[in-house]
Amino acid sequence: KIIVLNFWASWCAPCLKEFPLFLDLAAENPDDIIFLALSSDHDEKAMQRFIEKMRKEKPTAMSGGNVLLSLDTGGAVTRGIFQTFRLPETIIIDRDGFMREKLVGADWSYEDLNGIIKNIDNM
Fold first, then answer.
1. Nearest CA to 91 among 20, 43, 22?
2. CB 87, CB 8: distance < 8 Å
3. Which DSSP letter does residue 86 get?
4. Residue 25, phi then psi, degrees to nearest 5
5. pLDDT for 23-39, tens place per residue?
6. Are the C-beta atoms of 38 and 6 separated by less than 8 Å?
7. What is the dihedral of CA 16, 21, 27, 30, to 10 degrees?
8. Rounded Cα gap, residues 68 and 80, in angstroms
């Protein structure tokens, strides 16, 4: 499957803007895409409140099995492995495990993201 790896936090306004778009993409492509969201929140309760909000607003996507959410305690993955210091940041990983695209910030549309995924899938 194609992995959409998103680094986000509940205090990051652009992150909250783009998060539902990732959920839509995951819901529309359950057999092809895994949405993996790593939160950099320091306050786990704030992250959980946002996730509960998304469960109410996007129940199909949140229960689809291809949406994985985790708190990156201490930033071991976000900053330590991926060297991500500004949120949001998203890495698109192809079916062979290679990074194919990196989106920094939330200055993209659903159509842009869907086009990137389709382009990767046609490689």
1. 22
2. yes
3. S
4. -60, -45
5. 999 999 999 999 999 99
6. yes
7. -100
8. 20
State the Cα–Cα distance between residues 83 and 96, nearest whole angstrom.
Answer: 22
Start-end of H helices in the chain: 13-28, 44-57, 59-62, 110-121
| Closest by CA position to 21, among listed 106, 110, 114 | 110
Pairing of strands 67-71, 89-93: unpaired
Q: SS in 3 state form for 53-75?
A: HHHHHCHHHHCCCCEEEEECHHH
Q: Decide if 100 contacts 12 (C-beta within 8 A).
A: no
Residue type, 42: H
3 state DSSP class of 8: strand
What is this structure's pTM? 0.92
